[in-house]
Amino acid sequence: MFDLVLGGMVTLVLLVYLVYALMKTEEL
Question: What domain range includes position 21?
Fold first, then answer.
């Protein structure tokens, strides 16, 4: 169960980072 939660958190962080990177590239 802990591995599932940890995997979900890592996926969420990567998703947020990807969205942030896309927004940052659109600004330029």
Answer: 1-28
